[in-house]
Amino acid sequence: MTTRFTDKVVLITGAGSGLGRAAALQLASEGASLSLIDVSEAGLADTAAQVTEIASGTKVLQLVADVSNESDVESYVQKTVEAFGRIDGFFNNAGIEGKQNLTEDFGSEEFDKVVSINLRGVFLGLKYVLAVMKDQGAGHVVNTASVGGIRGVGNQSGYAAAKHGVVGLTRNSGIEYGQYGITVTAIAPGAIMTPMVEGSLKQIDQDNWEEAGRQFVSANPMQRFGRPEEVGHLVAFLLSDDASFINATTIPIDGGQSEKY
Ligand code: NAD
């Protein structure tokens, strides 16, 4: 049976957990070969095992790399091309939340750390993957921004700066590379229940984080957290040829929360 990703190769960063893992599972179920990148070797192995469970014939490459390190990024792109010959889709997704604090207390080291992974890491991925896609004359990229990249959330200086930057990079690269048959989009997830959001709620209330979560989502029009697999469906759509004229824009996936006054 032919599916949307039969004979397609998709590279995913932050593939060892949360949204990266959910996208890997969705794409594998649609026939993609996968190059999975993460700093966590154990996370990668877990994702690869889950992929094999739902789609046993899937070709999976696992590469440990830090997306903020340029030689790591150059190497993960090179190894993916060596293994598969091309890159059809790129989910440029790895990120961290960072500590929550007022601007005056945020700390310049923490700021640099969050920006280095969440913004520089996305830029470096674009730098090396877009060169490959330009030679191919085709490709789709999805960057992970956040509602924190299109709205003010507070207590997130580094995250806000980085994610607004991801929206800017998406616009910039999308308008540059459209002429080569490439689309570059971003997603802006609201609160999706992953280990990152669990960590964030624990920063609000370590002992009663589940109650903090219930209060948090009571403001959402749909009154619930998003599920990683819902993001996986959006990412697969944007990385597929079904989305071939959607470019340079950022799509919220947040139950409508960012539209609410
Ligand atoms: P997660 O913590 O479950 O997964 C993130 C993965 O990225 C982890 O496996 C981690 O090891 C990896 N990673 C972290 N730093 C890395 C680095 N330097 N190099 C390579 N890999 C690295 O989090 P998640 O919720 O799946 O988040 C994925 C992306 O989605 C992030 O960019 C995050 O900012 C964004 N996001 C998440 C939410 C949400 O509600 N979960 C909302 C908005 C945006």
Topology (SSEs and partners):
Layout lengths: L8 E5 L4 H12 L3 E6 L2 H14 L5 E5 L5 H15 L4 E4 L10 H4 L1 H29 L2 E6 L12 H21 L4 E8 L5 H10 L4 H9 L10 H12 L10 E4 L8
Parallel strand pairs: 1-2, 1-4, 2-3, 4-5, 5-6, 6-7
Helix pairs in contact: 1-2, 1-9, 3-5, 5-6, 7-8
Bound molecules: nicotinamide-adenine-dinucleotide.
Keywords: Cell wall, Oxidoreductase, Secreted
Pfam families: adh_short_C2 (PF13561)
Family: Belongs to the short-chain dehydrogenases/reductases (SDR) family.
Q: What does this 3D model show about the protein?
A:
- The protein is an alpha/beta fold and 261 residues long.
- The protein folds into two domains: 9-190 and 227-252, NAD(P)-binding Rossmann-like Domain (Rossmann fold), CATH 3.40.50; 193-225, no CATH class.
- Helix content is 48%, strand content 15%.
- The protein has nine helices and seven strands; from the N terminus they run E-H-E-H-E-H-E-H-H-E-H-E-H-H-H-E.
- It has helices at 18-29, 41-54, 70-84, 103-106, 108-136, 157-177, 195-204, 209-217, 228-239; strands at 9-13, 33-38, 60-64, 89-92, 139-144, 182-189, 250-253.
- The protein has a seven-stranded parallel beta sheet, with helices on both faces.
- The radius of gyration is 18 Å and the shape is globular.
- Nicotinamide-adenine-dinucleotide is lined by residues 13-14, 16-20, 38-40, 43, 66-68, 93-96, 117, 121, 144, 146, 189, 191-192, 194-197.
